[in-house]
Amino acid sequence: MRLKVCGMRDHGNILQVVQEISPDFMGFICYKPSPRYIGESFVMPENFPKSVKRVGVFVDDPFEEVMMVSHRHNFDAVQLHGAETPEYCRRIRARGKEVIKVFRIIDKLLQKDLDEYSEVVDYFLFDTFGKHYGGTGKTFDWSVLTGLRFGKPVFMSGGIDNVTVRQLMELPVKLYAVDVNSRYEAAPAIKSIDELKKLKNFLRNEL
Question: Cα separations (Å) of 20 from 16, 17, 200?
Fold first, then answer.
């Protein structure tokens, strides 16, 4: 089971997480209203390891702006939380970036919605719907995923912590990765290394 740690911004905390946790993916929020927004002056640490994929998180931004920011920070993947169309996803993929399409779930998920994107994205990510984007700290009804055909690796997000992650393992859905954020924070964009170590050890034992 792979691990994505999202909502990073502080250089010291970034380097501590990559050195001590070594997640597979790290997310950097490029959505300005977010308390975890990286800001205009953010610079990626020079010694950021190639083994950790850099993911830029965007919400309904103009295509060229996403490409400009992704190039500036050398993002490996673009995570899309808004109403981005399949054509929008295809264009980003054509520029050499992996695409993670997010579905923010209230009470259901339709197969036709997945099928619409399955040929133009690299991953699906399922998160909890909230008034604001990202970091709700709440789970959704995971049973809505039962019986669906994904066709792409699945990330799960929304209220995942060292207790709920054990319940995730019981789902009849093959997960590719878990995506954690607010439940592992000491403050917005500052992650708890001790709690992430517990999660990493659990996921390692579940492989």
Answer: 6, 5, 10
